[in-house]
Amino acid sequence: MPALQVCAILEDKLYLKAELCKGCSFCVEFCPKRVLFVSSAFNAKGYHPPGVYADGKCSNCKLCELLCPEFAIYSTDYSRNAGRGNGAGGGQEVQ
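-> structure tokens emitted (95 positions)
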């Protein structure tokens, strides 16, 4: 199972499955807050997954989630999960 990177965005969280990413950069190009960038790191497939510039600037619009053809990035909505936990545990928090 691919490693999961977790980035806190206010009370919500942005999750990146870097090993699923094929480096299309749709999430980076269309992010309205310019929170994401193309990382210089490679994943196991040899692609550059996105990184996060400004932790906390993300508006949780979920556009990256909708555009990703590989379902490699997604976020949770704190207001929907309040008091229930998001069940995503085991991820590594990115700062």
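The helical segments are 26-30, 63-67, 78-81.
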